[in-house]
Design goal:
This protein is of the alpha/beta class and about 290 residues long. The protein has two domains: about 160 residues, Rossmann fold (3-Layer(aba) Sandwich), CATH 3.40.50.720; about 120 residues, N-(1-d-carboxylethyl)-l-norvaline Dehydrogenase, domain 2 (Orthogonal Bundle). It is about 55% helix and about 15% strand. It contains 13 helices and nine strands. A six-stranded parallel sheet has the order 3-2-1-4-5-6, sandwiched between helices. Helix 1 links the parallel strand 1 and strand 2. The radius of gyration is 20 Å and the shape is globular. It starts with a strand and ends with a helix.
């Protein structure tokens, strides 16, 4: 069934996600802090029911479903509050930002005071997953709101799963990032070791990728790591933001994250080398050039 939808935030993830909704025939209004990006999206996906709005409140006015994909907790609070100001009781606000569980619970409570349902729904799969409509979405919130949102989210996802109450989606995304951090460091060490041992590194990856060492990172980043290519993908700056959220939550719940804390320090060194916008797989450069 066609929905009146607003999408707030047209970055490398949000732009194609909103595009999938337009292609599915939904009535989509977009908002972006840089208005030119919203105008570009409308020019690409324009037609009946496709428009850009000057503010989040304007975009959200009359929408059945409002989706956000912004930068951090402060952005979620600001854009979310502005969106709620334009939303009607019975509407649904979904946040795809990777943010804290605390801000998810805050937004859930704020939305409830206006009769609006809220879901925290961070995504995994990167830009390629967003463009291909193959994201994994982990959701926190109430079951009725999830049931209403799931058919819409499915337009750009291969899996949409309710993980628990408010904040559970963000907590699950933290687990995702913790696991990725350790995997990328291990893969970096293995590739560096193989090279220094005089092996054909791509052949090594091909062989061990058929066994227990196989991972998404190996399949999608191994060869670009060997080629020393990092001008794409999920930026180190974003990963450090995410790991900061993980480490703060760990301090609050008493979890030990020794490897995550160490990898976060390694990413700080990558930033110091000017690699803040490099892909997270650039950790291998620290091993090739320790200086």
């Amino acid at each position: 069934m066609t929905k009146k939808v607003a999408f707030l935030g047209l970055g490398v993830m949000g732009y194609p996600m909103a595009g999938h909704l337009a292609k599915a025939g939904h009535d989509v209004t977009v908002y972006n802090r840089t208005a030119a990006k919203a105008a570009q999206w409308v020019a690409q996906h324009g037609g009946h029911g496709k428009a850009a709005a000057a503010t989040p409140a304007e975009a959200a006015r009359g929408a059945d479903l409002v989706l956000m994909c912004v930068g951090n907790d402060d952005d979620v609070r600001a854009v979310g509050a502005a969106a709620l100001a334009g939303m009607s009781p019975g509407a649904l606000l979904v946040d795809h930002t990777t943010a804290s569980a605390e801000v998810a619970r805050e937004m859930h409570a704020a939305a409830a005071t206006r009769g609006v349902a809220f879901l925290d729904a961070p995504v995994s799969g990167g830009q390629a997953g967003a463009e291909g409509g193959k994201l994994t979405i982990m959701v926190g919130g109430d079951a009725p709101a999830f049931a209403a949102a799931e058919p819409v989210l499915a337009h750009y996802a291969k899996a949409v799963t309710l993980m628990g109450g408010p904040g559970a989606g963000q907590l699950t995304k933290m687990v995702n990032q913790i696991c990725i951090a350790g995997l990328v460091q291990a893969l970096s060490e293995g590739i560096n070791f193989a090279g220094r041992a005089g092996l054909d590194v791509e052949r090594v990856l091909d062989v061990i990728g058929k066994g227990a060492a196989q991972s998404w990172q190996m399949e999608n980043r191994g060869r670009t790591m060997v080629a020393d290519k990092f001008d794409f993908g999920f930026a180190v700056d974003w990963m450090r933001k995410d790991l900061g959220i993980c480490l703060a939550e760990a301090r609050a719940n008493g979890s030990a994250l020794p490897v995550t804390a160490l990898v976060d320090q390694f990413y700080a060194r990558v930033q110091a080398k000017g690699g803040g916008r490099w892909d997270t797989s650039s950790l291998v450069r620290l091993l090739r050039d320790p200086q």
